[in-house]
């Protein structure tokens, strides 16, 4: 067999009143692979990500993490189960340094895992974890900088770092490059690659060069449904995708 998907959804529907933002969405995200979710504005990409992370209520369908049905779990329980997510909206505390932000997130995650943890021998562990992630996101020299004073690119990198502190098996990244300048794009791609090492990643990204370069698989959405899915080379040549989305006529 093909093995168990790291994350899967079956016949998922999210409705806002009579309007179905997504419907009939089924997808398998296989372990260790990087998936990009693309499609025009309003196609339902963020809604699908919200459905997977537990932020949107399903009106129909199921979601499974590593073969375990998580449809009924709230977002924090999904995080605890190994499903991490970075946000478009910043979760960084200004007035605290980069390292303090990472330590706080590491501590919050420990507490989620082990509510009765008393910190016995643990603070050193937290400091080490924060420093490991600081290196992972290429910000080793910025640990003591106030997060409020970071460049936009560094803020986006720190957001990814905050998501990495829970060491998720599956990581959902919603436009981690949004607002990042052209010069910073290469660095952002490098960051996503590093974040993806050893885990399954689902990425929403509008930059097609980045998507085609970085993805193992591309999932194309249109009108709340999956139009096509496959490796970048296949998607690039798909006639339906080209006429519906890539702007070829
Ligand atoms: P974008 O690329 O612009 O972020 P998207 O593909 O992520 O678009 P969604 O944000 O998932 O698309 O939106 C899908 C559809 O659902 C849109 O028509 C949107 O207006 C609608 N929608 C999303 N959230 C809500 C909500 N809370 N209430 C009502 N309609 C919503």
Automatic annotation (TrEMBL):
Does this UniProt record's set of keywords contain NADP? no
Cite a single GO MF annotation. Answer: ATP binding
| PANTHER family assigned to the protein according to its UniProt record, in alphabetical order | ABC TRANSPORTER ATP-BINDING PROTEIN, CONSERVED COMPONENT OF ABC TRANSPORTER FOR NATURAL AMINO ACIDS-RELATED
**Official protein name in the record:** ABC transporter ATP-binding protein
CDD domains attached here? ABC_Mj1267_LivG_branched
Superkingdom of source: Bacteria
Which spans of this chain does the record mark as coiled coil?
A: none
InterPro entries from the UniProt entry? AAA+_ATPase (IPR003593), ABC_AA/LPS_Transport (IPR051120), ABC_transporter-like_ATP-bd (IPR003439), ABC_transporter-like_CS (IPR017871), BCA_ABC_TP_C (IPR032823), P-loop_NTPase (IPR027417)
Sorted UniProt keywords: ATP-binding, Nucleotide-binding, Transport
Please give the PROSITE patterns that the UniProt record associates with this protein.
ABC_TRANSPORTER_1 (PS00211), ABC_TRANSPORTER_2 (PS50893)
Q: Which residues form the ABC transporter domain?
A: 7-248
Q: What is an example of a Pfam family matching this protein?
A: ABC_tran
């Amino acid at each position: 067999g093909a093995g168990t998907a790291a994350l899967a959804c079956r016949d998922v529907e999210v409705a806002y009143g009579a309007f179905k933002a997504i419907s009939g969405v089924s997808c398998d995200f296989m372990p260790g692979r990087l998936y990009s979710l693309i499609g025009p504005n309003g196609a339902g990409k963020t809604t699908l990500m919200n459905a997977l992370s537990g932020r949107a209520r399903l009106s129909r369908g199921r979601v499974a993490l590593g073969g375990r049905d998580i449809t009924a779990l709230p977002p924090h329980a999904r995080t605890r189960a190994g499903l991490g997510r970075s946000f478009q909206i910043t979760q960084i505390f200004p007035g605290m340094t980069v390292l303090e932000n990472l330590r706080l997130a590491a501590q919050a995650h420990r507490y989620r895992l082990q509510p009765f943890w008393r910190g016995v021998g643990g603070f050193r562990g937290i400091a080490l974890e924060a420093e490991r992630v600081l290196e992972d996101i290429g910000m080793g020299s910025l640990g003591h900088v106030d997060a409020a004073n970071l460049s936009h690119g560094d803020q986006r990198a720190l957001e990814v770092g905050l998501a990495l502190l829970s060491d998720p098996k599956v990581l959902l990244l919603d436009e981690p490059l949004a607002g990042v300048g052209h010069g910073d794009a290469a660095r952002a791609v490098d960051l996503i690659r590093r974040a993806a090492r050893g885990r399954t990643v689902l990425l929403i990204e509008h930059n097609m060069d980045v998507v085609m370069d970085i993805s193992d698989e591309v999932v194309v959405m249109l009108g709340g449904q999956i139009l096509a899915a496959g490796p970048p080379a296949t998607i690039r040549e798909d006639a339906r995708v080209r006429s519906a989305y890539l702007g070829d006529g």
